[in-house]
Design brief:
The structure holds 2 protein chains of 2 kinds.
Chain A: H1 4-15, H2 25-29, E1 42-43, E2 49-50, H3 53-60, H4 69-86, H5 90-100, H6 109-129, H7 135-146, H8 153-166, H9 170-181, H10 190-220, H11 226-247, E3 254-255, H12 257-269, H13 273-285, H14 293-305, H15 310-323, H16 329-338, H17 343-357, H18 366-381, H19 385-393, H20 399-402, H21 406-415, H22 417-431, H23 436-443, H24 450-463
Antiparallel strand pairs in A: 1-2
Chain B: E1 10-11, H1 30-34, H2 42-50, E2 57-62, E3 68-69, H3 84-87, H4 105-115, H5 117-130, H6 149-156, H7 171-208, E4 219-222, E5 228-235, E6 241-249, E7 255-265, E8 270-278, E9 281-288, E10 291-297, E11 303-310, E12 315-320, E13 328-332, E14 336-341, E15 345-351, E16 366-369, E17 375-379, E18 383-388, E19 398-401, E20 414-419, E21 432-437, E22 440-445, E23 454-457, E24 464-469, E25 479-485, E26 490-496, E27 504-505, E28 510-512, H8 527-537, E29 541-549, E30 556-563, E31 568-578, H9 593-605
Antiparallel strand pairs in B: 2-31, 3-31, 4-5, 5-6, 6-7, 8-9, 9-10, 10-11, 12-13, 13-14, 14-15, 16-17, 17-18, 18-19, 20-21, 21-22, 22-23, 24-25, 25-26, 26-27, 26-28, 29-30, 30-31
Helix pairs in contact in B: 4-5
The chains are: A mainly alpha, B alpha+beta.
Organism (chain A): Echinops telfairi
Protein name (chain A): TATA box-binding protein-associated factor RNA polymerase I subunit A isoform X1
Protein name (chain B): TATA box-binding protein-associated factor RNA polymerase I subunit C
Chain lengths: 470, 612
């Protein structure tokens, strides 16, 4: 059987020798043919699993096969642990946990196999919050749990390493990850392989930390110094090691922001721009990956650093625009488009501004409103009324209520007069002088803003798309 | 808006539910979510370790051990209705290694035959009276198989032994019952049995999961000040009277009722009540099984009706737009989602009688709004999709897919999808959506579809059908997210993360007292009364509402619950913060005299005889 005693001893330290491993040995000798399958979720007949079905049935059904005392006590104990956790009673939970270890001796194979994972999940949770727990207790518990059964070794190692990382214990985390990396059990399954890749990637991330530390020190050195060249040499070897660790994982579909970011930084530093570009392009455009806005943002900022041609930048931002039209970079995108020679780009520039302001989180973005007011004027001056109308047609049914209502006129004027002025100008151009928002703002006789409001009135008179003939 | 960067590493696999070969990287630990990767610069890391990222212990401390009645009970006595006990076969299951839910049709049928024998057999008897002949082949059997009805009726002599199986029967009668039993029984069983089976299965499904009450039928309408407001909820046996009860909160968060509630009589059971204040205009929408209605609420709290909508196939969900006043999304059991405004009427935005990801028989549909006022989320049991109401019909990105992308388990289904609308830009992004299944809770960002930013195994012992994101109690605090199960269980989660960081759980979620915890606040009754009281407290939750009282020192939270018995219970809680102490949270919060008076008064005015 498993080395439960070790776990128990470890736990004893926490709760000061609470409940002992009471006599469950007689349970072990009696052959119990327990019900198989997941106990908590029983099929109700329509494809949906109802976890609380069992409870409902327990209240009604009498007779038939009854659960053995052993199963009853373990499941009751599990419920008590969960309840204590939800009440933040860490000490109580720890005491119950102590008794719950008996589930490792369950004669039901399914339950016994599922047990280590449940124990780890709940146990780590308790130890994370327990006031008396420390890195050492957590470590001992993790080490014990890793070796109970074989299925959880990698998972627990990884989580343990993350825990250490979180507490700033980089060396220990590294040692843990290195140990886990070389671990093998039976034939290498796909899930094992992914976990090993992930472990290697975290190791790579740790190496990146060392590398960036070296980079910081490098700045302190003189370039002609002998030490400088050895330091760069060191860093190069470090980055080579890292790339070995990271490159496998980032080919698997997923969200790997921290890994990609650090990998690219290293490649860039050592002058491998093509490599960095390839990784970022792959991360952003591979269809098997989720549409992660960060992938496009990283690619864009890389290209910008590289001083890539404007066409290239536009094409990257165009895709980002399709995914996240509300992103801050869209204002930058507008500026790039605006200065383009192509008419189609300048038209897109207007579309981008309208699209940002569609979103509820951006309604108070004064820069966006300022850009829009300015660009509307420019567009109309350039005789592109059709562009404005095209954008406005899909919005005229709801923008007046969404942006230019009397309520917003009042509250914007109260909170931010500059914003109110920009919005009023846009409202005037799009809806005409009769619009509630424009009327409200233009009637406010404000000392400082009087000149601005006068100018606004003039602009609206000239550019308003309502009754363009006049 | 900023997009959080970098995101947590996550594996992305497409595939069906319960694909076990993929490691579940979400691990289901709340602490794992709290972990942060050190910044790339060693300098800042040193600072980080100096201020050790301790496990913050956020805890809303209940003021009383359980919720207590806020309002007097309704005049009608409450009947718990059908329970699992009435529906399930109570005998042993010797043949199954795994216990199974078996509907007890036989018992219901035999009840019917005993109680309504005239209905069950009467018509057949009348039909047969003329030409009654039970004739077998005489040569083979010596038994007498022909009975004269005339004699039979004479035997009975008008004294039918109803309800008494041991009444003395003549031999002739016994013979008749043996011969006629199969014939008489079959016609009833074939006519009624199937319908009964269907009905029982439906009722049983409702006990396990009642999708009609998704969203909740209790709402808090904020008043002119933060301390006053109105509770809107249905009462009456049929839940067809919509009540408006003025409630004010004392400065330490205790609710106080003002006057009698105003009410509106409706023609249908209220299933969902939604309120929303958009641009200073308070709106109230109500859904019953076949109708939806919209009211505007004046500053003084007076509702004025705007429009009523009839839905032929039945409604499953309604939601009010947080962006445009008076705009609603309405879902119908036919699979149609419509945008509804009183001015412009209905606009169909989506129609699909089938579920979106895989085939599921449920007709439940749900819709909510997103950060873009023209984009809706449309959900069913299998997934959630984002639909542009201005785009071509029928297309849209999947926001959530019941499958390997979110590491869903086998048999996992979406039970609730909600847009977490955000008013203050200082905390969470306004692009988050909450998806609840029977196992877990997911947070998704509409800008990164299919990849959950957060997953938490809620472990509620009933269906989580109500959720509410509450405002920040204090600047910089995590946002409380309230999750309510159909069975009355409540869980409070703390979400932190601003615009540029990922939303995560701050601390371990906590459970809140349930209504049955109130039992200790009532005077002890005689056992039958006590049982009835417990039964009433145990009634399913129909709605949940909360009001937060932001205060610099200790913010308080007033929590209101509506039960299926029509009772409105309340509970106040205070935020306590600090390092987790060595001693467990003090369970000995005691009943305040005020709360016990409420309990006693409630008990006295209940028509249901608890003390008889």
């Amino acid at each position: 059987m498993y080395c439960v005693c070790g776990v128990t001893r470890n736990w004893n330290g926490l709760n000061g020798g609470g409940l002992g491993m009471s006599n469950f040995s007689d349970e072990l000798t009696s052959p119990v043919a327990e019900a198989k399958g997941v106990e908590t979720s029983v099929l109700s007949g329509t494809g949906i699993y109802i976890p609380w079905l069992q409870k409902q049935m327990d209240m009604v059904v009498t007779g038939g096969k009854k659960k053995k005392d052993f199963a009853q006590t373990t499941s009751a104990c599990l419920a008590l642990i969960q309840e204590a956790l939800l009440k933040h009673q860490w000490q109580k939970a720890a005491e119950y946990m102590h008794s719950y270890f008996q589930t490792l001796e369950d004669t039901d194979t399914n339950k016994r196999q599922a047990a280590p994972e449940i124990i780890w999940r709940l146990g780590s949770e308790i130890l994370y919050y327990h006031p008396k727990s420390n890195l050492e207790t957590f470590g001992t518990f993790a080490d014990r749990m890793k070796n109970i059964g074989v299925m959880n070794y990698l998972k627990i190692s990884l989580q343990h390493a993350l825990y250490l990382l979180h507490h700033g214990m980089l060396e220990d985390a590294n040692r843990n990850l290195s140990q886990a990396e070389t671990w093998r059990y039976g034939e290498k399954s796909s899930s094992q392989e992914i976990l090993i890749n992930l472990i290697q990637a975290y190791k790579g991330l740790l190496q990146y930390y060392t590398w960036s530390k070296q980079k910081m020190e490098l700045y302190k050195l003189d370039e002609d110094d002998y030490a400088y060249s050895t330091a760069t040499q060191n860093m190069l070897s470090q980055s080579w090691k890292t790339s070995v660790n990271l490159s496998a994982l980032i080919k698997i579909p997923g969200v790997w922001d921290p890994f990609v970011k650090s990998y690219v930084e290293m490649l860039e530093f050592h002058g491998d721009h093509d490599g960095a570009r390839e990784i970022l392009t792959n991360y952003a455009y591979d269809e098997k990956f989720p549409t992660n806005p960060n992938a496009h943002i990283y690619l864009y900022s890389f290209l910008k650093r590289e001083k890539a041609p404007r066409e290239k930048l536009i094409s990257v931002l165009k895709i980002l625009y399709q995914i996240v039209p509300s992103h801050q970079l869209m204002l930058e995108f507008h500026k790039i488009l605006k200065s383009s020679d192509k008419e189609e780009h300048r038209k897109l520039g207007l579309e981008v501004l309208f699209a940002i302001l569609d979103f509820s989180g951006c309604t108070k973005n004064i820069t966006a409103w300022r850009y829009l007011a300015k660009y509307l004027k420019e567009t109309l001056m350039g005789h592109h009324l059709a562009w404005v109308q095209e954008e406005w047609n899909s919005r005229k049914s709801w923008w007046p209520n969404f942006h230019f209502s009397y309520f917003w006129a009042k509250s914007d004027w109260m909170e931010d007069k500059a914003l109110a002025c920009e919005k009023a100008l846009v409202a005037g151009i799009l809806l005409g002088k009769g619009c509630r928002y424009f009327r409200y703002v233009s009637k406010q006789g404000h000392q400082v803003l009087r000149k601005k409001i006068k100018q606004m009135n003039k602009s609206v008179k000239r550019y308003s798309i309502v009754n363009p003939g006049l | 808006m900023d997009f959080p960067s970098p995101l947590h590493p996550a594996l992305f696999m497409s595939g069906p539910l319960g694909l076990s070969s993929i490691p579940d990287l979400s691990f289901m630990c709340s602490w794992r979510d709290a972990l942060t990767l050190p910044e790339s610069l060693p300098m800042s890391r040193a600072e980080n370790t100096a201020a050790k990222p301790s496990a913050q212990d956020l805890w809303w401390e209940p003021d009383t051990p359980g919720p207590f009645p806020l309002l007097p009970p309704g005049p009608e006595p409450w009947d718990p209705g059908l329970t699992a006990q009435d529906l399930l076969f109570r005998g042993g299951h010797h043949f199954y290694s795994r216990p199974r839910a078996t509907l007890d049709v036989t018992e219901q049928l035999s009840h019917f035959l005993w109680d309504h024998g005239d209905v069950a057999f009467g018509s057949l008897g009348t039909l047969m009276q003329e030409n009654f002949k039970l004739e077998g082949t005489r040569s083979r059997s010596k038994k007498k198989t022909v009975v004269s009805v005339k004699r039979l009726l004479q035997d009975l002599g008008g004294h039918q032994p109803w309800g008494c199986p041991w009444a003395s029967l003549s031999r002739r009668q016994r013979r008749f019952s043996i011969l006629g039993g199969p014939v008489l029984g079959r016609s009833v069983a074939s006519l009624v049995g199937e319908l009964l089976q269907e009905e029982l299965a439906g009722r049983w499904g409702q006990i396990l999961l009642d999708d009609a009450i998704t969203g909740g039928a209790l709402a808090w309408l904020p008043g002119s000040t933060a301390l006053a407001g109105q509770l809107v909820y249905p009462t009456g046996v049929a839940l067809d009277k919509l009540c408006f009860q003025k409630v004010s909160l004392t400065s330490d968060g205790h609710p106080r009722v003002f006057g009698d509630p105003g009410h509106i009589q409706l023609r249908g059971s209220v299933r969902q009540v939604v309120t929303q204040t958009v641009q200073g205009e308070a709106l109230l929408a109500v859904r019953s099984d076949y109708h939806c209605a919209l009211w505007k609420v004046s500053r003084q709290g007076q509702p004025s009706p705007l429009q009523v909508l009839q839905v032929q196939k039945g409604t499953t969900g309604i939601s009010l737009s947080p962006h445009l006043p008076g705009e609603l999304a309405v879902c119908s059991r036919s699979g149609t989602i419509c945008l509804w405004t009183p001015q412009n009427g209905l606009q169909q935005v989506y129609k699909d009688p089938e579920t979106m990801v895989f085939r599921d028989h449920s007709t439940w549909r749900w819709a909510d709004f997103t950060a873009h006022p023209r984009v809706l989320t449309v959900g069913d049991r299998t997934g959630v999709r984002m639909i542009d109401t201005q785009g071509p019909p029928g297309c849209g990105l999947l926001l959530f897919r019941g499958g390997a992308e979110a590491s869903c388990q086998k048999g996992e289904r979406v039970l609730l999808a909600q847009y977490l609308k955000e008013c203050s830009p200082a905390s969470l992004n306004p692009t988050l959506h909450l998806i609840c299944t029977q196992f877990s809770l997911y947070l998704l960002d509409e800008r990164l579809p299919l990849v959950p930013l957060l997953k938490w195994d809620h472990g509620l012992p009933s269906a989580p059908l109500v959720a509410q994101l509450l405002p920040v109690p204090r600047p910089g605090d995590p946002r409380p997210l309230l999750l309510g199960g159909q069975g009355g269980q409540l869980q409070l989660l703390h979400l932190s993360g601003d615009g540029s960081s990922i939303p995560r759980l701050a601390g371990h979620p906590q459970s809140l007292p349930v209504r049955t915890d109130a039992l200790s606040g009532f005077p002890v009754l005689e056992p039958p009364g006590q049982r009835r009281l417990q039964e009433r407290l145990d009634a399913p939750t129909l709605g949940l509402a909360a009001a937060i009282l932001p205060k610099a020192s200790t913010p308080s939270l007033a929590l209101f619950q509506l039960s299926a018995a029509g009772d409105v219970f309340c509970q106040s809680l205070h935020l306590r913060e600090g390092e987790p102490g060595p001693e467990p949270h003090d369970p000995a919060t005691s009943w305040t005299p005020q709360a016990t008076t409420c309990c006693c008064r409630w008990l006295d005015s209940t028509k249901c005889p608890f003390t008889a």
